[in-house]
Amino acid sequence: MDRFDVVPEAAIVDGTATDAYFRRTEEALAAAGRDPTVVAEVTLRQFPGEDKGEGEGESESERGDHRVFAGVKDVAHLLAGRTVDADAVREGQLFSGGPVLRVEGRYREFAPLETSLLGFLSQASAFATRALKARLAAPTSRVISFGTRHLHPGVAACLERSALVGGLDGISHVAAGERIGVEAGGTMPHALLLCFGEGEQEAAWRAFDEAVGPDVPRVALCDTFADEATEAVRAAEAVPDLDGVRLDTTGSRRGDFRQIVREVRWELDQHGHEDVDVFCSGGMTPAAMRRLRDVADGFGVGSYVTDADPLNFGLDVVEVDGQPVAKRGRLPGKKELYRTDEGDQVALADADADTEGEDESLLAPLVRDGEVVRKFDLDAAAARAVEDAELFDVAAGGE
Prior knowledge:
Layout: H1 9-14, H2 20-32, E1 37-43, E2 67-68, H3 72-79, E3 84-88, E4 94-95, E5 99-106, H4 107-110, H5 114-137, E6 142-145, H6 156-165, H7 174-180, H8 190-196, H9 201-211, E7 219-221, H10 228-238, E8 244-247, H11 251-254, H12 257-270, E9 277-281, H13 286-292, E10 298-301, H14 303-306, E11 314-320, E12 323-324, E13 335-340, E14 343-348, E15 364-368, E16 371-372, H15 378-391
Parallel strand pairs: 6-10, 7-8, 8-9, 9-10
Antiparallel strand pairs: 1-5, 1-11, 2-4, 3-5, 3-15, 11-12, 13-14, 15-16
Helix pairs in contact: 3-5, 5-6, 5-13, 6-7, 8-9, 9-10, 10-12
């Protein structure tokens, strides 16, 4: 008997992790002896930069924004072994509309995968987009993903990979890190200090220093029992070669948090601990990070990323047996997405598009005849996101 409400990987791969109407569609097509060759495209908006209408899943502040494309690695492996071809925007690429993924093959070959395919892209791209906004809010600071505690554990690896795609410097979840091949980081919770008790903070900090490996940064949590500045100085004097202090002060006790951080920095410097960094966590948003980035050295970002609404991607058939076709409100025909000097443009795949200045279509090979033909590099994806943010002058936003 399964103990947790987690859909098994096998169900995702075999297509049973799907909406029931796709199963009914398979049954109907099989009974009718029909299985056409189709082209299907995933889009958020039909054209780059267009505003969606009210009621289509986006707030006014989000319409027209560039987003970070993520989740494509999972989609590639979802399609692996199926007799299909797929092309997709690269992981970490920014987009504002047009097709980001195209699948070609017999419709019944991939029809039941649509639910999982869209889920992979929608959740991951939302997380990566928020992560990039946090990255841009403090571009020279160390920013770590702290958000897995706000999500179902089955989504932890998706969050952590997406956070790295969006440009964050590290993650906190151990199992997720093992899954994606990245070592998780982190130091101590308030519980460690509480287990030693008030007045015994030095004992707790020293116990941590003596127990963990030499590769673990010595960062002391300094807001449990006493004033943050006082505890910071005590920690710096208790632990030789302390790397930093972390402030995770409860919102109801913060007052002016910037002032608190400045006081901590002042006291550390006054006592000769100029090399001890100050790290802030707890409800960090881009707005808060912009206000603190000149007085803090790093941030832990959690709920700002995990609260992101999944992107409202849709997958639509645009060609059947070589003939352009689409439902109302969608553009028929197989298309390409080009990056030009004038911005991104959509054109029919067999048309001579007015795309002077482009290098090539942003839709690059992903799967060919069921074989994954792309490598996935997290560092390259993160660099791509940051470079595209500079290209399109994407700001951190006002959150």
